Task: inverse folding
């Protein structure tokens, strides 16, 4: 049983802005993640405990703490990633995971997308890591490209793909069960 995908359908009706290299941190973290009010859907192949500096301060918090604070404010967060989070991120996740911060793993996931409040979206090459989003200094960050958009049609198409993985619709025909024996494996984090 296959999954019907909407491929090559027009996704116009909205502008797109190119996001390059160090612009990722400002656009995705500062203008996106930190300003989410209702929901945050994140798809990333790699997930590490990137540090997020407070604006106008020398203090910084890990992205896990940032997500935890957003969840405490009522933001519904879905994080879908491919591999095992970095050891620092995993330690923080095990310490406390709010109910409305849900994490699932699909080893075949390779896309990178951040959808904020179903109204704004980043789609590109950057993982949720310091090197990917430009939180590291010059000479250490990755060379990344992406698109920032408010195009409802494009956001809807990406969310459809995200949901097909999140809900396990792609697990039926998956040939990677040896890597992911349980569909949509959730991390062993203890009691929730």
Result:
């Amino acid at each position: 049983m296959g999954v019907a995908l909407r491929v090559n359908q027009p996704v116009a009706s909205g502008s797109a802005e190119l996001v390059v290299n160090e612009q990722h941190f400002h656009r995705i973290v500062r203008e996106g993640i930190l300003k989410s009010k209702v929901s945050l859907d994140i798809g990333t192949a790699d997930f590490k405990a990137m540090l997020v500096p407070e604006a106008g301060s020398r203090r910084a918090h890990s992205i896990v703490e940032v997500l935890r604070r957003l969840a405490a404010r009522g933001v519904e967060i879905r994080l879908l990633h491919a591999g095992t989070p970095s050891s620092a991120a995993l330690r923080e996740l095990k310490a406390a995971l709010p109910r409305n911060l849900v994490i699932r793993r699909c080893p075949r996931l390779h896309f990178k997308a951040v959808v904020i409040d179903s109204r704004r979206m980043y789609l590109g090459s950057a993982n949720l890591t310091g090197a990917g989003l430009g939180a590291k200094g010059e000479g250490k960050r990755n060379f990344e490209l992406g698109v920032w958009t408010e195009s409802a049609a494009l956001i809807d198409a990406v969310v459809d793909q995200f949901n097909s993985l999140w809900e396990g619709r792609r697990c039926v025909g998956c040939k990677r069960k040896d890597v992911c024996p349980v569909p949509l494996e959730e991390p062993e984090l203890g009691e929730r």
User: Anything to note?
Assistant: The CA atoms of residues 47 and 84 lie 8 Å apart.
